[in-house]
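Reading a protein record of the kind used here takes only a little practice. To see the layout at work, look at the sequence and tokens printed below.
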Amino acid sequence: MRAWLVNISLVDGWFPATLFSITAVLAAILLGIAIWEMVGGSRGGGKRAIAVVACPMVIAVIAGIVGLVITWLLSDVFVVFGVFAVLHLAGLPFRLANAVAVFCSGSFNYVMNRNVTFKSSSNYARSIAMFVAMYCWNLLFSNLMMAWIPGLLGWPTMAVKIVTMGMQAVWGFLLCRYVIFK
């Protein structure tokens, strides 16, 4: 049972297709109700019909934003930034907080990328060596940027961490997809 649950993909397969289908059917029903209200000349007039159309659209946008936030919180971003933010705000120097955050992120990311995202069966020793090398580079890069950029541009350390995380996400995905877990 547990293996089945772990293999559910949020971006491919039956789970997102089912959620999309349910959402599409509910949207069609709500749109049908709105059209019925407008054509049928309801007692509330045009204002009620507009509310019936606008309300589901606002709810859909809010649901989409909530879904994106939940996905973000469950991802590597939450692990690396969450650990960094908590440790840094607790008073640890940014280099030490960043090292712990990168270690936690790397451990989580390796397991998820190898087993879930890329479903890799490549050489274990090769993939872990390359992954560790990439994370050592990420640690060095982010520490250098957090040491230089705040003094150079006056940015807060947290903002620099977010920017470096975005850069690392791009080259990390490309390296994992095409080199490390191929």
User: Anything to note?
Assistant: DSSP finds seven helices and no strands in the chain. Residues 84 and 97 are 5 Å apart (CA to CA). Helices lie at 2-6, 14-39, 45-73, 76-89, 94-117, 124-153, 157-180. The two ends are 28 Å apart (CA to CA).
